[in-house]
UniProtKB/TrEMBL annotation, chain A:
<feature type="transmembrane region" description="Helical">
    <location>
        <begin position="224"/>
        <end position="246"/>
    </location>
</feature>
<dbReference type="InterPro" id="IPR052522">
    <property type="entry name" value="ABC-2_transport_permease"/>
</dbReference>
<keyword id="KW-0472">Membrane</keyword>
<feature type="transmembrane region" description="Helical">
    <location>
        <begin position="107"/>
        <end position="126"/>
    </location>
</feature>
<dbReference type="InterPro" id="IPR013525">
    <property type="entry name" value="ABC2_TM"/>
</dbReference>
<dbReference type="Pfam" id="PF01061">
    <property type="entry name" value="ABC2_membrane"/>
</dbReference>
<keyword id="KW-1133">Transmembrane helix</keyword>
<dbReference type="InterPro" id="IPR047817">
    <property type="entry name" value="ABC2_TM_bact-type"/>
</dbReference>
<keyword id="KW-1003">Cell membrane</keyword>
TrEMBL record, chain B:
<keyword id="KW-0067">ATP-binding</keyword>
<feature type="domain" description="ABC transporter">
    <location>
        <begin position="6"/>
        <end position="235"/>
    </location>
</feature>
<dbReference type="GO" id="GO:0005524">
    <property type="term" value="F:ATP binding"/>
</dbReference>
<keyword id="KW-0813">Transport</keyword>
<protein>
    <submittedName>
        <fullName>ABC transporter ATP-binding protein</fullName>
    </submittedName>
</protein>
<dbReference type="Pfam" id="PF00005">
    <property type="entry name" value="ABC_tran"/>
</dbReference>
<keyword id="KW-0547">Nucleotide-binding</keyword>
<dbReference type="InterPro" id="IPR027417">
    <property type="entry name" value="P-loop_NTPase"/>
</dbReference>
<dbReference type="InterPro" id="IPR050763">
    <property type="entry name" value="ABC_transporter_ATP-binding"/>
</dbReference>
Length: 254, 314
């Protein structure tokens, strides 16, 4: 049975760690996203035609949100577990009567919470630059939470897999960011020439961006059900991998 | 004899790559004792602690703590065990009191500011409660680790090299702290390669080397069984052979007959009495001497001797 006091301790401590590094955790991504809005939304967006009936500046909001969400959630979760491994403080977690449930809900929950706070701030920031309406606000929140939880789990796996700082940064830098840029953040897949529009569908981030865009504007490159299914599938795969890690103690216990 | 609270049977650990860090270790720890695990670097001390505390996965053997099988009922067992690691591993940016409160919460206990205050005061950390750990001295940081380990009020506390790299004054202060823990009913298992530490504090001593537990015994019994008195008597005139009246003593001539060496006793002082009798016998036999040097063997001598035997047998 899950020990909620242990879980709460891990969760609050991780959130406090984020507050300690507020500039890196919150202000820096908000600043970066604001720059995207200024450049692609206000400056370039003003000269761009509407896409699927959505103003270009508003069109890029879900993509930019996803760009920040994926990067920050993965980084937060991976650092959250990598740093105790790196500094040796993980001994305390391993020697405590806590298992996979407490650890996951604590670390991954805190990483996901930080991302949700960040998402809310980014959406409020976007309001300063762009007028937009969210067609399905409840679904948007649920979907953002699902994506945040999935990539927090993914980041957790990354933080356990990495045995140096280079490895910790390599996946977000070399895979996540490029795939998000190419996943329809700034354009619709329909705008790509053939065969790139078909090849782009092999990029899993396309489904995430598209899913979030559908909750915002009711229009997307792929069916929302497919986006939701892929997100849930990714969540399930990450959960199974983490369960295996805890069962075998891989890279956690000597 | 107190009830056993930790029982290790056939505990082994082989790391990937083949290093056998623990080799079929059997050990029982009794409630309320201070047990010192002695061994050189790489002997397997930290691996043994890691196995009990869940940091190292044993390759073989069973572990029971407080009657709980640690393979299946690990939550109940770990809830009563505390660990102070060898390295100063903690979040250096956290204030002291928050770090200690976190440790208590991590073990599933409700916040208890009064208990945290008591622990911090007992370790002379109360004045530093709002100080970031990174701003503390090395000795204070080590106390913070002890406070964190005590936050969930463990019944069994592991101290892995608690005084490694600290100065003499702090080491003695640490010994006082460990004594105070025992007063509170905490069973303490400490690893050390400072023999004097074990001599000073331990009720029982275990000697480990190469992953094998070479010996476990009460410190006093170990001294009695393996301890010796060694006396060197400088003779005024060299002897070619021992006088018949002292032949029954465990003595032999050394340094071309100019020195008489006694090796005997049992580590309890019996040897000193025999040396006194020997000197009387020498006087009676009209053997003059110019000096006597008597030395009781220490735990360190026993330790070195056991390790030597172990290596010799290997």
């Amino acid at each position: 049975m899950i020990n909620w006091r242990s879980t709460w301790s891990i969760y609050t401590r991780e959130l406090m760690r984020a507050m300690r590094t507020a500039f890196q955790s919150i202000i820096a991504p908000v600043l970066t996203t604001s720059l995207y809005f200024i450049v692609f939304g206000a400056a370039i967006g003003a000269r761009m035609p509407d896409i699927a009936g959505v103003d270009y500046a508003a069109f890029i909001i879900p993509g930019l949100l996803m760009l920040t969400l994926l990067g920050e959630t993965t980084s937060n979760a991976s650092f959250g577990i990598y740093m105790p491994r790196f500094t040796g403080t993980i001994y305390e977690l391993l020697s405590a009567p806590v298992g996979v449930a407490e650890t996951l809900v604590g670390f991954v929950g805190a990483a996901a919470t930080k991302s949700l706070i960040l998402a809310a701030i980014i959406l409020l920031t976007a309001r300063l630059f762009v007028e937009y309406q969210i067609a399905h606000p409840f679904l948007a929140v649920i979907y953002i939470m699902l994506v945040a939880a999935s990539f927090a789990l993914f980041g957790f796996i990354l933080g356990i897999w990495a045995d140096n700082f280079e490895k910790l940064g390599i996946i977000p830098m070399l895979f996540l960011t490029p795939l998000t840029f190419l996943g329809g953040t700034f354009y619709s897949i329909d705008m790509l020439p053939k065969p790139w529009d078909t090849i782009a569908l092999a990029n899993p981030i396309v489904y995430l961006v598209s899913g979030l865009r559908w909750t915002f504007y009711g229009t997307a490159d792929v069916d929302f059900g497919l986006s939701l299914g892929i997100t849930l599938g990714f969540l399930a795969v990450c959960t199974v991998i983490i369960a295996y890690i805890f069962k075998t103690g891989w890279r956690l216990r000597a | 004899m107190s009830e056993p609270i930790l029982e290790l049977v056939g505990l082994s650990k082989t790391y990937p790559g083949g290093l056998k860090a623990l080799d079929n270790v059997d050990l029982t720890i009794r409630k309320g004792e201070i047990f010192a695990l002695l061994g050189p670097n790489g002997a397997g001390k930290t691996t043994l602690i890691g196995a009990v505390c869940g940091i190292v996965r044993p390759s073989d053997g069973t572990m029971r703590a407080f009657g709980h099988d640690m393979a299946t009922d690990w939550r109940a067992a770990r809830a009563r065990i505390g660990l102070v690691p060898q390295e100063l591993s903690t979040d250096m940016f956290e204030p002291v009191s928050r770090a200690v409160a976190y440790s208590r919460g991590l073990f599933g206990l409700a916040p208890d500011p009064a208990r945290i205050e008591e622990i911090l005061r007992s370790l002379s950390l109360w004045d530093k409660r709002d100080t970031r750990i990174m701003a503390l001295s090395g000795g204070m940081k080590r106390r913070v680790l002890i406070a964190k380990a005590l936050a969930h009020e463990p019944d069994l506390l592991f101290l892995d090299e608690p005084t490694a790299g600290v100065d003499v004054e702090l080491r003695k202060d640490m010994w006082r702290q460990i004594g105070a823990m025992r007063e509170r009913g905490v069973t303490v298992i400490l690893t050390t390669h400072y023999i004097e530490e074990a001599e000073e504090m331990a009720d029982r001593v275990g000697i480990i080397n190469g992953g094998k537990l070479l010996m476990v015994d009460d410190k006093a019994a170990m001294m009695k069984r393996l301890g010796r008195t060694e006396a060197h008597i400088s003779l005024a005139q060299p002897l070619t052979e021992l006088p018949a009246s002292i032949a029954h003593f465990p003595v032999e001539l050394e340094e071309a007959g100019t020195s008489l060496c006694y090796r005997g006793g049992d580590g309890t002082g019996k040897g000193k009495g025999e040396v006194a009798d020997l000197t009387k016998a020498l006087i009676a036999a009209e053997v003059d001497y110019t000096g006597i040097e008597v030395r009781e063997s220490t735990l360190e001598d026993i330790f070195v001797s056991l390790l030597g035997e172990g290596e010799g047998a290997a």
